[in-house]
Amino acid sequence: MQQASKAPPRSSLLDFVTNNQVVLGYLFILPSLIGFILFYAYPAIRAVGISFLEWNLLSDPEFVGLANYEEIFADERFWRSLRITLWYVAWNIPLQTALAIFFAVMLDKFSTALSTIMRSVMILPWLMPNVIVALLWLWILDPSIGIANVLLNTVGIPQQDFLGNPDQAIGWIAAINIWRHAGYNAILVYAGLKTIPKSLYSAADIDGANGWTKFWRITLPLLRPVLVFVLVTSVIGSFQVFDTIAVTTDGGPAGATRVIMFYIIDQVFNRRISMGTATAASVVLFTILISVTIIQMRFLQADQSDLADYS
Predict the structure, then answer these.
(1) Element of type H or E holding 63
(2) Is residue 190, in this structure, part of any structural domain at all?
(3) pTM for the whole structure
(4) pLDDT tens, 95-136?
(5) Model confidence over 4-54: pLDDT tens digits?
(6) How far apart (Å, rounded) are the C-alpha atoms in residues 15 and 155?
(7) CB-neighbour burial class of residue 245 (10 A; exposed 0-12, middle 13-18, buried 19+)
(8) Residue 15 placed within a domain
(9) In the chain, fewer beta carbons within 10 Å around the N or the C end?
(10) What proportions of the chain, in percent to the nearest 5, are helix, strand and coil?
């Protein structure tokens, strides 16, 4: 009697990978994981090591322990740069987030065709290189030939110094970055709005809820996952602001816009070549960002979604 032919055996390794979703997932992210380790994780760990050294790139590094941290903590310029950075974040984040939510809600009320056109227009500032945006606003806000003062004079408002005024400069830097990023964040929030079931608003209408009640009781709570992403990325980007200031004010006037990134770069290129103090300041900034991110995610309960209650 002739035996039936047997199917060729499958590779045990291939079978294991195919049936193990965790292993399969890690294989998919492996290229990005390798890039992250090589270009982000290893340099960050290396920077922590350099922060304990006295090194000017020309001589052999010398271990000095916590001396670099003691130096920057005793440096008034470091604390001033940190205060200016915090002041910039206080200007930038609330206004940018509020505008993003407002624009997203307006987009949601427009017709599909008009909403598509508006989204295309709103994303344009974000697509422009930051240096180009800074140059554009530097010309607009120029005290002598800028169109901003021409418009103000037209309506009878005295000429302003804008970026040349120490009391106004950091606020205008924040305004430039709000103009660039608010539209992009609005599109993210708009995408979050599309995940909210319309039946919830219909039920609220039946109960007699007005627009503000629906916004505070339905829209904002259900936007929490998107808002967490927007806030975390915006705060991290705000603490690292540099190029806009470098193009428009170069840290001036009178050091009014010399944020912490300027302090770090100053340690390497301007004041003296000190990789140790520069990386020590970078490690402090990294610690601040990690702490702020953890607080945000805990306070906003980033691992939870109210949408699950309605699924």
Answers:
(1) strand 62-63
(2) yes
(3) 0.86
(4) 999 999 999 999 988 888 888 899 999 999 999 999 999 999
(5) 555 445 556 666 666 677 777 788 889 999 999 999 999 999 999 999 999
(6) 75
(7) buried
(8) no
(9) N
(10) 75, 0, 25
